[in-house]
Amino acid sequence: xxxxxxxxxxxxxxxxxxxxxxxxxxxxxxxxxxxxxxxxxxxxxxxxxxxxxxxxxxxxxxxxxxxxxxxxxxxxxxxxxxxxxxxxxxxxxxxxxxxxxxxxxxxxxxxxxxxxxxxxxxxxxxxxxxxxxxxxxxxxxxxxxxxxxxxxxxxxxxxxxxxxxxxxxxxxxxxxxxxxxxxxxxxxxxxxxxxxxxxxxxxxxxxxxxxxxxxxxxxxxxxxxxxxxxxxxxxxxxxxxxxxx
Length: 245
Fold this sequence. Notes:
The protein has 245 residues and is an all-alpha fold. It has helices spanning 2-6, 19-24, 29-46, 52-67, 70-84, 89-97, 103-126, 131-149, 157-165, 168-188, 193-218, 223-244.
């Protein structure tokens, strides 16, 4: 279920899931992120002999093709709501529910994709590919943390079901496992140590800032905020890598 929701690749047909199964699928978001990162890493490695601009454009295209526009749509909706909501919770929620994309949403998407492309160019020129493995995992690992720590404000729908039925103890164990993975991996590849730990710290900082903004505006979060959190974290982590190299 997590693979079907987070990726555009084919998934086996399955029976109608229960509310508990829908919520439990959230536990697999970070592992699915790692799988997506592996595919992006493989694509970047295969394109290693191509000009960096072309390779970066193709990796970005693959990134969008793999994950779809689900999270990008959340960013656009949040941008429209933050600009057009004028600080009002009800108005902001109404704008986020509107399927139309306003000027703020368009500008947010263009800027995010431009920054993502530029950061990918920098990484490919330096041959620094391994962060592509980690960044999709770290960004999606923040989603269980968001559900655990923040009220869900829109009644009904997939997000409300996840918030109500989420297995909290298992979620904390998954997050602890991810933290352990981040701490232990550099012991196997010592050259990863400073940057991987920096990426994890920056991901937590981005989470805190996005959560703070959402609590101030909405007194909680929605599915659009969760999607925006993923893509904002991805581009910030890519930029950190680009600046470091």
